[in-house]
Design goal:
Blueprint (H helix, E strand, L loop, with lengths): L1 E12 L2 E10 L2 E6 L6 E6 L4 E4 L1 E6 L12 H10 L2 E6 L11 H14 L3 E4 L1 E2 L8 H7 L3 E5 L13 H14 L2 E5 L3 H13 L5 H7 L2 H18 L2 E4 L5 H12 L4 E5 L1 H5 L2 H7 L12 H12 L5 E2 L29 H11 L4 H15 L16 E11 L18 E11 L2 E5 L24
Helix pairs in contact: 5-6, 7-8
The structure holds 1-[(4S)-2,5-dioxoimidazolidin-4-yl]urea (3AL) and zinc ion (2 copies).
The site of 1-[(4S)-2,5-dioxoimidazolidin-4-yl]urea has 13 residues, from loops.
Keywords: Hydrolase, Metal-binding, Purine metabolism, Zinc
Pfam families: Amidohydro_1
Catalytic activity: (S)-allantoin + H2O = allantoate + H(+)
Length: 454
């Protein structure tokens, strides 16, 4: 007796796409095969739809507690499930106080258990002031440690210098956890910003000039060297240049334990778009040119990029307004759009449906030890997204479930629409509605065998 039978969808798995039924018992997939016999308490007709594993967004800033006027776990996770996600990992900033010890970790965990529509993991911070707290964060269940090599944009989340990063990586290695780095050189970005601002530069082009590709390439190079030396596991978030990806891929080939993330905005927009659209596209690292966009797509096609995270980092609208582009909040609201971008732009750039499932779900789940997530196999959680692959739709403001209806994806045309999202067999999103109260669970990372990483 199944609790749920999902009938006749095109099931997207590692080996390919096939029409099959999924049998679910107690929130887990138990059978995947054509024409499963019943009985089942509930049947769901998925004919004509594709069934993807729920996306695992390893990089969001929901800013709770402390900055829920920017976003919040309730609104952020609703947007995530509306876009086909079932798991997120929240960054230790821009919530405030930032997650730098057990008490701040537990406060965020409790907020998530109250309000989240998706299952979730939590990052701890790695900053000069909490080096002695890394073991307690690991004990509390942190998925890894996040650090900024450039200024984070917030005084309360300081960047480690090379010494602190070196010691932090050694500690993370001992604890068996990944270090995630925002890799841009603070020396280069701050120095350029100082000079350009001194000359009166305040515009989008000035901002772009203050964060050139070399700032990313240099920081990635240094991060890889430290990871190689300390044998720490490294996750490079939001890489924006082909050169940085190439450096990381070379390091991996010689045995460095590194995974590579990029974000939908680096795949879809350029610096020219940032000039045209302004604050809605302000982010760091900044958007690049079409040659870099092409280099990232090539790297994805050739398997050098492992995961796609949204780096959803919105703020209030007044922080997204102003004459001085440098002082506008840097961060793009994209948590609802990752799968739409991959299904539209990704397919146009030669990705298969299993590629999309791998980048959005399977690899992040595996890399970060989120057991039972990211795949549609017997034994896994029934985290399913039912997608109508052929529908073309124009993204409107009304579609957004985020706190602020402000996204660079509004007005764009997408092909492939999320109809329904299930978390452990329960519908959490259906055609614009959220039929059940939040029931997201906290996920503690399981140890990942060495050979399975990256
Ligand atoms: N603090 C924060 O969320 N920063 C993010 N925003 C952005 O554009 N890049 C980041 O690292
Ligand atoms: Zn970052
Ligand atoms: Zn981020």
């Amino acid at each position: 007796m199944y609790d749920l039978l999902v009938r006749g969808g095109q099931v997207v798995r590692e080996g390919g796409v096939e029409q099959a039924d999924l049998g679910v018992v107690e929130g887990r997939i138990v059978d995947v095969a054509p024409e499963l016999g019943g009985p089942a308490r509930e049947e769901l007709d998925a004919r004509g739809l594709h069934v993807f594993p729920g996306a695992v967004d390893i990089h969001v800033h929901f800013n709770e507690p402390g900055r829920t006027d920017w976003e919040g776990i309730s609104t952020g996770s609703r947007a995530l499930v509306a876009g086909g996600g079932t798991v997120f990992a929240d960054m230790p900033l821009n919530s405030t106080p930032p997650v730098l010890d057990r008490a701040t970790f537990e406060a965020k965990r409790q907020a998530g258990e109250r309000e989240s529509y998706a299952d979730f993991a939590l990052w701890g911070g790695l900053t000069p002031r909490n080096m002695d707290r890394l073991p307690e964060l690991a004990g509390a269940g942190a998925v890894g440690f996040k650090a900024f090599m450039s200024h984070s944009g917030l005084e309360e989340f300081e960047s480690p210098d090379d010494y602190t990063l070196y010691e932090g990586m050694k500690a993370a290695r001992e604890l068996g956890l990944i270090v995630a780095l925002h890799a841009e050189s603070d020396s280069i970005t701050s120095g350029l910003a100082r000079r350009i601002r001194g000359e009166g530069g305040r515009g989008v082009r000035d901002y772009l000039r203050s964060r050139p590709a070399i700032a990313e390439v240099e920081a990635v190079n240094r991060a890889l060297l430290l990871a190689e030396e300390t044998e720490a596991k490294l996750h490079l978030v939001h890489l924006s240049t082909g050169r940085a990806v190439a450096l990381a891929a070379e390091a991996r080939a010689r045995g460095v334990n590194v995974s590579i993330e990029t974000c939908p905005h680096y795949l879809m927009f350029t610096g020219e778009d940032m000039e045209r659209l302004g604050a809605v596209l302000k982010c760091a690292p900044p958007l690049r040119d079409t040659a870099e966009v092409d280099a990232l797509w090539t790297a994805i096609r050739e398997g050098r990029i492992d995961t796609i995270g949204s780096d959803h980092s919105p703020s209030t609208l007044d922080l997204k307004t102003g004459e001085d582009f440098f002082s506008i909040w840097g961060g793009i609201a994209g948590v609802q759009s990752t799968l739409a971008v991959l299904l539209t732009e990704g397919r146009e750039h030669g990705l298969s449906l299993p590629d999309i499932a791998r980048l959005s779900a399977r690899t992040p789940a595996r890399r970060f030890g989120l057991a039972g997530k990211g795949r549609l196999d017997p034994g896994a959680d029934a985290d399913l997204v039912l997608v109508d692959l052929d529908t073309e739709w124009v993204h409107t403001t009304d579609d957004l479930h985020t706190r602020w209806k402000f996204s660079p994806y509004v007005g764009r045309t997408f092909r492939g629409q999320v109809r329904r999202t299930l978390l452990r067999g329960q519908t959490v999103y259906q055609d614009g509605t959220f039929p059940n109260p939040p029931q997201g669970r906290f996920l503690r990372p399981a140890p990942v065998p060495q050979e399975e990483t990256a």
